[in-house]
Structure formats: C-alpha cells, structure tokens
Amino acid sequence: MSTLHLCGTLSFRRRATDRIATVGTLLALLLTLIPLTLVVGYVVTRGAERFSGRFLTSSMAGVGPLDAGGGISAAIIGTLEQVLVASVIAVPLGLLVAIYLTEYGGSRFATAVRFLIDVMTGIPSIVAGLFILAFWLIELGHGFSGFAGALALSILELPIVVRTSEQMIQLVPNSLREASYALGIPKWRTILRVVLPTAATGIVTGIMLAVARVIGETAPVLLVIGNNNFVNGDVFRHAQASLGVFIYQGALSSSDFDVDRAWAAALTLILIVFALYAAARLLTRRDKLARR
Amino acid sequence: MFHGLARAAGALVFAILGAIALFLVIKAIPALHGDKASFFTSQAWGDVSGTHKFGIAALVFGTVVTSALALLMAVPVAVGVAIYITEYAPRPIATVLGYATDLLASVPSVVYGLWGFEFLIHHTIGVQTFLARYFGWIPIFRHPNADVDVISKSIFNASIVLAIMVLPIVAAVCREVFRQVDPAEKEAALALGATRWEMIRTAVLPTSRPGIISAVMLGLGRALGETIAVALIIGNVTTVNGHILVPGGNTIAANIANQFGESDAFGRSALIASGLVLFVLTLGVNLVARWVILRSGREERSVV
Asked: What CATH number is given for A53-291 in this structure?
C-alpha cells in the first residue's frame, strides 16, 4: 500500500522515465546475453560433431583437405609449448616490474614505466607479431619457429602480468612489511619472504587469466610460426602448429572437412580458456587477501 | 642488488617498446622508399609484390569506420548492462551476470571470426535487406539492388562482430567505475525523493564520466587492432567504400593477416609499414584516453 501511495505522489512523467530506464537496462542485458548464448551454443553444437579423443590425439600428418580424419595433436602441443615459453619469459619479468612499481616506486622513472605498461596493454596483437617478424625473422634471420610465436605472445602477456600482480601486491597490508623490518629483516628478504607469499594466490590467479588471454591469440602467431601438419615438439626449431592458426586456416578452407575440424578445434580452445577462467575464479574465492 | 634487478626489469620495458617502434620503422623503410604510389592517399594494395604500389587510404578508412560503427552499437548496450548489474540486479544475480559478461570477453577472437563467418553473415541477410529497402536513401545503407539476399562479407557484418567483442570489455570497466561511486551520494539522491533512474542520472553517471570515456577508449583500441575476426568477415577489397552493406571493406590489421601468405620481401615490408600506422593510431587513442583521465583529476587505471 505504501509503495502505491508513494508512486501516486510522483508525476506521471518521472514515473514513466524511471520505467523506461529500467526496461532499457534490461534490454541491454538481453542484447549482451543473446550473442553469448549464440556464440557458445553454436561452438558447442558444431564442435561436438567432430570432437573426440581421437581428434585430440591424432595429427594432420598425411591428411588432406578432402579426408575426414585427422586431429589437432600437433596444434595442441604447439600452442601449449608456445604459451609455456611465453610465460617463462613474461611471468618473472612481469613480477619484477610489479615489485619495482609497488615496493621501489615513487620515482619519476617508475611513473614512466607504469605509463609504458599502460601503453603496452594497448598494443594490438598483430603489431607484436609484426615486431617479432621484423626483428627476429627478418633482422636476425631466424626461420619460422614456435619460439618466435612465444616471443610475440610474451609481449602481450607481460603487461597483463604486471597489472594484476601490482594490484595484488598493493593489497598486502603495510603492517606486515613493518613487522618484518622491525625484526631487522632487509627489504629484499621482506619482499621475497613476506610480501610475495601473502600475495601469492592473487598473483597465480592473475597469471592464469593472462594465460587464458593469450592462449587463443592467432594474429601474432600466424606471422611467425609457419604452421605444420606434423607434430613438432621442438619449440626452437622448424615451423610449429597452433590451435588458433588451425582454426583460422580451417575457416578459410573450401573443404567442409576442414571447417568441421576448425569447429572442433574451436570447442577445444574455449574449453581450455573456460577451464583456466573457472580455476582462477575458484582460487580468488579462496583468497582471503583479494576478498578484503 | 634486488632493487637494481627490479629497476633493470623496468628499464627492459623501455627497451621493448623502443625496439618495437625502431624495428617497425627500419623494416618499413625499404617499402616506403620503393613505393610507386602515394602511401597515404593511394588505395592500391592488390599485388604489392609485383607492382610495388601500395597505399593505406582504404585500409585506414575501413579500420576507422568499422571501429566507429562497432562502438556506436556496443557502448550504449555496455553502459546499460553495467548499470543493470551494479544498480538493479540483486547481489547473487549480479555476480552470475558479471561472470557471464566476463566469459564473453574471454572467448578468443579467432572463435568469433569462425562464428561470424559461418553463422552470423548467414543470419543478417534479413536485417541488411530491411536496411537497404527502407533506409537506402541514407547514403551508407545504399545498395545497388534493394534485395540484399546474398551473403556478404561487408563492413556492416564486421562491425557487428567487433561490437560483440568490444561490448564485454567496455561493460567490465564501466561496472568497476560505477561500483566506485560513493554510496553516500546515491543515498542522498534517493533521500531527496529521486527515482532510481534520477539517482543514476544525477549521482552515478556524472562522477563516472571520465571512467566511461576511458572504457570507450579501451574498447576503441581493441576494435582498431582486431585482426583475425575481421579478416574472416570483411570483404578484403582495398577500395574506399562508404556503403556498408555492399560486400567489401578492409582494415589495416585484417589486410596484414590476409596478405601475409602471398607477400615477398617487399610486400612484407609494406605490411610492416601499414602496421606502423596501426601502432601510431592505437598509441594516439591510448594517449587521448590518458589525457582525458588526467584532466579530470582522477587517477583511474582501467581494469582489464
């Protein structure tokens, strides 16, 4: 009754605008959820047609565009190795930069570094690929390799790692640092033994999200890894395959078999990404620091 | 010593960005030097390798138009959904919706490309026909035959996919921005008898404006540089074409992915030159975004 009474005191125009706004935001929500269901639903239904254990474990060696068989083992191995190497480069470096910005920051140099990290976040992925093409392949004369792809991916991963680690390290309460200093422990040991362990869960979450972001990157990798139907476990030598490139080439092919394989590979890729994402979410939920 | 190590890592960031700019310039020079057409005004790209003729006019046009259209579609929806999640939805539902939009952001661009190429462009024929038939008098919707019953790789379709990709990014930042609004201000507005919408309009949106602008800029940067999804959906035609329903269009990034395979050394150098333009373009967008935030006096680092 009381709400009815209140509504009665509002002018019709104000009430109508309020209603329209509510409906408008609901409409926006609907417009967001429609593409989500269409994309995920279509990838799952189309991908499931060819998705199987055999598909994951066999390569495209000796399989032509007009053959129905084949699989993505070469692409999975390539992608995993490239992302692993990229993380080996980007994670320690990113952590060091984050430590520098939070624990030794404040100088003009630190402000400049922070600004450049922001700039780096905005670099289009294809430009990172072009840079590795210009530097690693053309200037230094190396051939196509998974490692070149990993270099390009590490450029994309670095700023993400820096940002998330920086945010997590900032959450570590100052009283912990001060308690450590009071015990006479030097700053570098305090960082290694007190600050990093406290922020560890959050940092791991950030790394997982960074990996989820770069694992499906196709454009930079397309320019520098070559592509390979055969399994090549050596990241450092000869062309390698990648899931993203596999999907891209499949989509461009005029053979229906290639398109079907591309869909199954797309399903594999989003399963990996969603799993990483869900694991990161679960970790965050258990992280006391991030929940504060 | 640890300080030194951390400082060196910071210095390496300088070195990486410097190297990116340096090597793109160095490797672009041979092509720019040998270019037989005007780099900025020519629309030629076709067979760069044979004729040594290329220009980025059509590519820049396509890049800017697709991104602008994508933002036009995505930003109102993104702001709306962020308002719904922060101001309307009950807490548990808001959390789930937050996950859902983040999920949309985590789908790799090549998957959007495949989806757009295999699904979307087959399902927008009706919309395109409608636009061409009833709004054909607006130049951008003009189409030679009003029944657009063909599947078209057009600027229109590329923009829709870009909009879907940019939407969750803009929405995520907006959500973060709206959440930071001082609850006291919102309660004050409600206490004065404002309706919920009036509270949003007077307390939430004005304080959030710099944050929304930086969210839009972030989305713009993403749209300008998006490669694979656009490469699969756009026409790959290098002529300036303002009629967005007609098959055609191209962007700098998509052109790089499409042309790379058939390019010789000169062609690759030309592609690097176009990449340099893209780099400068996104750098400019980034700087403008930073400037807007700084000017508003609030240091608000966008959340990615």
From this structure: 1.10.3720.10
